[in-house]
Design goal:
Radius of gyration: 18 Å
Structural class: alpha+beta
Number of strands: 8
Distance between the termini: 40 Å
Helix content: 40-55%
CATH superfamily: Jelly Rolls
CATH topology: Jelly Rolls
Strand order of the largest sheet: 1-8-3-6
CATH class: Mainly Beta
Strand content: 15-25%
């Protein structure tokens, strides 16, 4: 819980009573590898803060193939926002631990803690900017440069994620990724 409170306090201040209120609503959720945190077409039950593991955000394209949008690693908030797409899945790639809050409890924070919405808005904006920066640089690069940039930007994820998911994220085939990795070392 300490990690979550430290994270929240980077974006605003809470008094001890508010911290205790939020802390008392927290639930620890463990996901095994390949379990879903959110599934397309289903209303998410929780807002989560990932403390251990990696979660993959993906969707199915028109050909029924999985397309990885991005990865979420430790110390990141997972929250439904206006940018939430109802067609996405959030799946544990590794065993994961999360601090979660029910949607009604999260709404209660918004009603009872004056600065809560402001804090959450700052978190959502920062997350969106980070996602755009990571994705935009990949668009205009060749496959080798994209892979090397991925390794540089996601050093904590690269060795924990199956190659198929990295290839999907980079928009290349798994065999191309294997060839690039062979030639890069």
């Amino acid at each position: 819980m300490k990690e979550f409170i430290s994270y929240i306090l980077q974006f605003g201040s809470l008094n001890q009573e508010q911290i205790d209120f939020v802390s008392n609503k927290a639930i620890i959720l463990e996901l095994n590898k390949e379990e879903y945190f959110w599934e397309a077409g289903k209303t998410p039950k929780y807002v989560g803060f990932l403390t251990e593991g990696v979660i993959r955000v993906f969707y199915y394209n028109n050909q029924g193939e999985e397309v990885t949008r991005y990865f979420i690693d430790e110390n990141n908030l997972i929250i439904e926002s206006e940018n939430f797409e109802p067609t996405i899945y959030l799946q544990a790639i590794t065993n994961c631990k999360l601090i979660v809050f029910s949607k009604p409890d999260w709404a209660e924070f918004s009603r009872t803690i004056m600065s809560w919405d402001n804090i959450v808005n700052k978190i959502v904006q920062k997350t969106l900017i980070q996602k755009l920066q990571k994705r935009s640089s990949l668009i205009e690069q060749d496959a080798t440069t994209r892979y090397l940039a991925f390794i540089e930007k996601f050093p904590n994820i690269a060795n924990r994620v199956p190659l198929a998911h990295i290839a999907s994220y980079l928009g290349i085939t798994q065999s191309s990724l294997s060839r690039i990795r062979r030639n890069s070392y």
